[in-house]
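Two folds, back to back.
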Amino acid sequence: MLDCWMAFDVAYTVRLAETLRPYRLKWIEECLIPEDFDAHVALRQRLRGRRLRPASTGTPTSVPVGGQPPDRRHPPA
């Protein structure tokens, strides 16, 4: 598994996947910006037929600003 911190574009991710193919990686985590849906579709199409899957995107956006879970930022009234 690679965790890429949303640093790649589609072309670079595909090149990286091809380069690392001999290592039999199972997935690339957070290779694209989570909100770029078109890029995710394009990447999925370009990686079709390979075992390597782009996966698990958006985890940085699941924690509110400040890194606190919602129940700590806004305690119940």
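---
second:
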Amino acid sequence: MRSKWLGRLPALTGLIFPIFGFAKGGGDDSAPTNASSGQQIAAYVQQHGMPNLNSLVHIELWAFLSVMVFTLVLYSRLRPAEPKLAVAAQIAVAACVVSIAVKLGSFPATYALYSSPVQLDPGLARTLWVIGDFAFAVSMLVQALSIGAIAVSGLMYGGIPRWLAGTAGVIAVAMVPAFILGGSVVVAPTLAWFLWLAVASVTLFVQGPRVATEKQPSARPSAVGAV
């Protein structure tokens, strides 16, 4: 019994990112936007530098990696239900890896921006901020591809509950225009994605891993007296 529940624990990794996101919060009203000047960004960063940041930013890297782990859990449910030539589950994993890599690639610029002990040059401050902001938008657009692939596989082949796959498809479609436009419109699909991750995590944990059953060929009764 214990091993049965231990085998389900990886599904709970889907809870890590939404819990982190809700605990960290969305920042404050004075945070820079695309319309902010370099001087405004430099001044904001000077006042909200590394010593004053929410302590949760230091575990943000691991929170992003948990999304990749949960996508692998989804893959383990989706792939066995797919036909041999289907690629949706593989696309989901590949897109998630690219999405996380893009976001993690911007961490050095973001760290340099917020860890400077002196106020940065406005031009440099804006450049570093744009790198982080652009990387986040691109990573979420690629993540939408991953979520969409999960939806396609789940709806077509039933590796996960179809209501879960259907809601993933709606969220994926909503994320694309939201992160292209940017601004406050990204809030709703991002929150929806957080909630989906949490619900999917609990659902897959309760459901447990798929058990593949091999069909045994039935023996044909031989005709009596056959030579």
